[in-house]
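Q: Can someone sanity-check these two? First one:
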Amino acid sequence: MKKFLAGCVALALSMPAAALAEELVIYSGRGESLVAPIIAQFEADTGIKANVRYAGTSELATLLQEEGGQSPADVFWAQDGGSLGAIAPLFADLPAEVNEGVAPAFRNVNNKWAPTSGRSRTLVYSTERVADADMPASITDLTNEKYKGRVAWAPTNGSFQAFVTAFRVAHGDDAAKTWLEGMIANDAKVYRNNGTQIEAIANGEVDFGLVNNYYLGRYIARDDKFPVAQTHFQAGDIGNLLNVAGAGIVAASDNQETARKFIDYLLSTTAQQYITLQGNEYPVVPGIIGNATLEPFAKLQEISPKIDIDQISDLEGTLALLREVGLL
């Protein structure tokens, strides 16, 4: 038996590298239902085996910081730019050409990570219980008495936390704390994520929710009479934050060449077309057929607050603030 095992080892060592199956460890803060088909197609197209760990983006960002140089991860695929910025020091530098092909609004100029899709924060609302006169002009209006007990939010969600970080950047920590405490005092209802907020509106539990733009389309695709719609706040409002999902290569990885293949794949026409048509997100490279259900990107740029994605990297400060006000 020992001779047999020794022979197997010797055979493996003598095989050309190309003959050995490539594998990749991906930490994904993107939901499995959305990205598993992309990863499966990547495996089919490249022959590379992907081992994926799914969890919340902020949870995985914290895990990567704890693991440091011992992390088994090769790639971190996050759902928001804030988390990517927070752990950018743990990423290997990407070649400049990776981001050069990306639309300027999404580009990471420091080449520590690559955007994979764009998304906007929106206000979702009941089409059955919300009148035009009930629509808030600003996200800060939601602390008013007329919205008491009517608004859903998801404080543990990574995209919401990136929004809070952007709020802090735009208006200061004191203003962000005042808004959070105002929402709590106004009996904002806590939900696990974006989808559960939308379902709560449809079920009559609440009338409004704060979510990313791409979730509602999944419900409407199954039921064109689904009783929820979405809108933006007034132009420039922080509630209209334009953010990205993105991916970086973990510097501690011994598998960086294979990891780069995955990054390149996410920016390919195949993946970008899937992300926008099936995922209802904005493509980040030119030449992709747009999703007709999405607000035109030019309009989105007009109404979005002027926040540099690289400025929303203080995730720890946001988590500390959320703990201080009792939301974590």
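And here is the second, same format, sequence then tokens:
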Amino acid sequence: MSRFQLNLLTICLAFVVITLGAFVRLSDAGLGCPDWPGCYGHLDVPTAEADVAVANERFAHRPVEAPKAWKEMIHRYAAGGLGLLILAMALVSLKGSSSPDQQRVLPWVLVVLVIFQALLGMWTVTLLLKPLIVTAHLLGGMATFALLGWCLFREGALFSGYRTVRRAGLRMSAGAALVLLIGQIFLGAWTSTNYAAMACPDFPTCQTYWWPPTDFSAAFTLWHGLGINYEYGILDSIPRATIHWVHRLGAVAITLVLLALAAMLWRQARVDSRWRGLAMTLVAALGLQVSIGISVVVFHLPLAVAVAHNGGAALLLLTLMAINHAVWRARDHV
């Protein structure tokens, strides 16, 4: 298997892990296994009657619910497999090669990141779904996916050699758009981890208001202390609505920014037609994500649509990584 094929396999599994994580969180299975890394003291879910009885006695506060436990363990198995593939990428990077595009440092950065992700996964359970930890875990998964994308683009010499004019301005715009998207992903994660996805059940208004009552202090208090069970959230309705509303405002802002970036890329097609494909891909990914986000509210948080919203965010992030890669590897038009 070539480095490119290994990288491609790894990024595909990373996408699966992201969507599985969303599925676990949104189906309220985040504490399906109250311990870590096993499940009720087992490497799988206890099913034998005697094992279940022992587990229920040991974890009396959270009796075995096999369907939730299996969701959590399947996610852990997939995450473990992803960690092994990333380690394999790092080991392969040690092999000598004359290719200037071979990644030597980034795979090891990913190894460190995935170890930290494992710690966040443990703390997600031991700190009882603390929103700051769960949000960091989601962002870490997105960061892993994005960096795997960057490796893939470099190894396959993808999106390289584009010709451009006013490269500095395009670099600044693409970089700023990426930073804003990361901020919007944080807001989406904060909305989910605080169980605020349906705090505004109507659209485009929020609880019939164009600007609902808000409480920014409570909504964005990052640390509430230890020993609190955050399952199903602890915030009142107004802070939850505030979080949801800010996420919607962020969606409007990032939509305008990404449409402006797409227009800039389209204009670059005058010197290199390949920019047009990136512009169209960006608009398509953005349109898909906005449509899914609206559907989450209109159809009152169906699980499949909510999970797709997480997947759509990952694809939009990957698209922006591709654009930034193309911009930073572009040549000035002569």
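A (reply): Looked at the second one. The chain is about 65% helix and 0% strand. The chain has two domains: 1-158, 159-334.
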